[in-house]
Amino acid sequence: ENIIVSPGARFSIFTAITTLLNPGDEMVVIEPAWPAYKDCALNSGIKVRTINTSFENKWEPSIEQIENTINPNTKMIVLNYPNNPTGKILPEKLQDQIIEIAKKNNLYVLSDEIYSEYVKSSWKSILSYNYEKSIVTQSFSKSHAMTGFRVGYAIADASIIEKMAKLEALCLTNVSEPIQYIAMKALEADTSNNNKTVQSRLDVLIQKANEMNLDIVVPDGAMYIFARVNKEGFDGVQFANSTLEKGLAVAPGEGFGDYKNFIRISACQDEKTLIEGMNILKEIMSEDQ
């Protein structure tokens, strides 16, 4: 009664936002952030207030920023740590303070923890606070590298799951039963090697980024580096489109908030391919000097 299985974590995020909030309510998103949080809210008539974190502050929001963003219409705060795109994990004390603020203001806490299997440093799930208004989402796409299967889940209080389940049943009845059995079987697998593999790949990207003088905050987890390109007039969207023609895919920082001079580089290929990709990036950037 505390778990709902959904076709990917995205659908649990959508049903949580859509069923727990009403049009006109407000939701807080800490950026840079996966754009779907904002998109799901705006689709449901929810107003989104964003908190911009900075490279200089190592992607950490301040308590003052959060408190100043909350008002009587605020009903939910979204957390995503380890973060996409930065790989940031919040210091435990800061996370404790954010949960206290949420409790004080009676906010739902939607915590997207799909990268929790990929952590370098200590990490604490929002479930550990036993806060009855928290919703945690997880995805087999990340934990078990099962992207194409489209299966994820959410963990929350039974009263919250009941609301989410009603909307999910209305939209799609349920997640395909064979897919659910495959996911259950996958839970028996030892995935610890996945973490080591991704960390090794991240180390390759970090080394290459440093050689190229790209500005990065070394990620605490997840599977990306979020790199600042120190070039006047740099436009991440234009750059990402142009690199595709050279056989390189990067995500523009603008997709994650107001980060026009950043790009996200993913560690989701083997090390040889990553090195080739970073070499292509180096060539493109030297041409643009």
Give a description of the structure.
The model has no long low-confidence stretch (mean pLDDT 93). The strands form two sheets. The chain has a seven-stranded mixed sheet, with helices on both faces. The radius of gyration is 19 Å and the shape is globular. Helix 4 (92-104) links the parallel strand 4 (74-79) and strand 5 (108-112). The protein is 40% helix and 17% strand. Helix 1 (9-20) runs parallel beside helix 2. It contains ten helices and ten strands. The longest helix is centred in the last third of the chain and has 20 residues, at 192-211. The chain has two domains: 3-186, 3-Layer(aba) Sandwich (Aspartate Aminotransferase, domain 2), CATH 3.40.640.10; 192-287, Aspartate Aminotransferase, domain 1 (Alpha-Beta Complex). The chain has helices at residues 9-20, 36-43, 63-69, 92-104, 140-143, 158-172, 177-186, 192-211, 236-244, 271-287; strands at residues 3-6, 26-31, 47-52, 74-79, 108-112, 134-139, 152-156, 224-228, 251-252, 262-266. The protein is of the alpha/beta class and 289 residues long.
Give Rg in angstroms: 19 Å
Q: Ends: how far apart?
A: 57 Å
Question: Count the strands?
Answer: 10
User: Biggest sheet, in brief?
Assistant: 7 strands, mixed
Instruction: Strand order, main sheet: write it out.
Output: 1-7-6-5-4-2-3
Helix content: 25-40%
